[in-house]
């Protein structure tokens, strides 16, 4: 059995699990709003779509602040060393984590740019609004909407791989990699 050594800090764990929950919930609501609800079908569906996308934005914009905090935390705190893993697996883990960080920035930023180009408000947790990232320009919205969609689905694929890797550590390698990110010791 390989050993992962010490655990992540309580702050790193809190950021990890809060962001995981927000990203999954935001993605489910985003898919529901974009794929299953359409403007112009009838007034009720249009109103519901606006409510659902507004909820999506209120939840997802919070990840912009959390990812900024998380990057600062990651750069100032050494994570536990990956002990007992082959150099190739360590490289693969680091590359996967780097892609996760990049997508955790690009997905909300592309959503922010898309709603900005459409000229819609960008609410954060029902508390306040953030300014438009780009000048309202409806001509840009098909491209930015598609970009947000592709990046969001890419993030979900990498998240699925991340979960599969965590479960492999727990049930196949039987090491303490998953435990090091769980609450408690
Ligand atoms: C954690 C961050 C986010 C995730 C995981 C996420 C995920 C998604 C997903 C999966 C969709 C459905 C895409 C489709 O099938 O067309 C979507 C749609 C959408 N998202 Fe996000 N999103 C995030 C952040 C944001 C932010 C910050 C905004 C704006 C402030 C935003 C605005 C939108 C809008 C307006 C749509 C609907 C697009 C349409 O109806 O074509 N998203 N999002």
TrEMBL record:
**What SUPFAM superfamilies does its record include?**
Transmembrane di-heme cytochromes
* Cofactors named for this entry: heme b
**Keyword flag Heme:** yes
Q: According to its UniProt record, where is this protein located?
A: Cell membrane
User: Does the record's keyword annotation contain Cell membrane?
Assistant: yes
Membrane topology classification = Multi-pass membrane protein
Its chief place of residence is membrane
For this chain, the family text in UniProt reads: Belongs to the cytochrome b561 family.
Task: Select a single GO molecular function from the record's annotations and give it.
Answer: metal ion binding
What is the protein's species of origin? Rhodoblastus acidophilus (Rhodopseudomonas acidophila)
Give the top-rank taxon of the lineage listed in the UniProt record for this protein.
Bacteria
Key words, A-Z: Cell membrane, Electron transport, Heme, Iron, Membrane, Metal-binding, Transmembrane, Transmembrane helix, Transport
> What Gene3D superfamilies does this protein map onto?
Transmembrane di-heme cytochromes, Chain C
Q: What residues does the Cytochrome b561 bacterial/Ni-hydrogenase domain cover?
A: 8-184
Protein name (Swiss-Prot/TrEMBL): Cytochrome b561
Q: Which residues form the signal peptide?
A: none
Question: Which regions span the lipid bilayer?
Answer: 20-41, 94-113, 150-167
Q: Which GO terms describe its cellular component?
A: plasma membrane
Q: Name one GO biological process term.
A: respiratory electron transport chain
């Amino acid at each position: 059995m390989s050993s992962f050594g010490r655990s992540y800090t309580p702050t790193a764990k809190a950021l990890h699990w809060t962001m995981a929950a927000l990203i999954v919930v935001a993605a489910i609501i985003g898919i529901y709003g974009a794929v299953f609800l359409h403007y112009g079908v009838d007034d009720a569906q249009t109103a519901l779509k606006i409510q659902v996308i507004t909820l999506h934005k209120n939840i997802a914009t919070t990840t912009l602040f959390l990812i900024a905090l998380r990057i600062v935390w990651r750069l100032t705190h050494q994570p536990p060393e990956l002990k007992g893993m082959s150099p190739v697996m360590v490289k693969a883990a680091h590359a996967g984590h780097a892609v996760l960080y990049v997508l955790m920035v690009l997905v909300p930023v592309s959503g922010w740019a898309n709603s900005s180009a459409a000229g819609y408000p960008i609410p954060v947790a029902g508390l306040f609004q953030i300014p438009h990232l780009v000048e309202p320009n409806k001509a840009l919205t098909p491209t930015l909407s598609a970009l947000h969609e592709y990046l969001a689905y890419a993030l979900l694929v990498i998240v699925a791989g991340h979960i599969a890797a965590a479960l492999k550590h727990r049930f196949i390698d039987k090491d303490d990699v998953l435990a090091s990110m769980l609450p408690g010791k």
